[in-house]
Amino acid sequence: MPDPGTFCWNELVTPDPDASAAFFAALLGWRRDDQEMPTGPYTLFWQGETMAAGMMDLKQMPEGVPPHWMSYIAVADVDALAARVAELGGQVHMPPTDIPNVGRFCVIADPGGAVISLITTSEGGDAPA
Q1: Domains recognised in the chain with CATH numbers
Q2: Of 51, 96, 105, 107, which sits with the fewest C-beta atoms within 10 Å of its C-beta?
């Protein structure tokens, strides 16, 4: 379980998962492991025996979302913090949502528009640390 307040995961959203996987394999030595998630195909990247990052196809995102890397910060209570975001002038782009066997996450933006994800991992889940 990652410590609250720490960066715990990075995820690539790309229009060309095959080219991106080949690029990061050549650049960083990452091994690709394709999985099926409730939202569609998902790729885990491994550096040796350690999960390094995740990747999904841009087609799985709402229209207008650009290709991007998303960082996740571990939090103790994603629901409480999502509610607090609005109080502080930010936006909740995706409300708290369950990811089976991983935890619960949301996507937020600060008042300047910078976007990040918050995640509360489940006990015994497969969330990376």
Answers
A1: 1-71 (3.10.180.10), 75-123 (3.10.180.10)
A2: 51
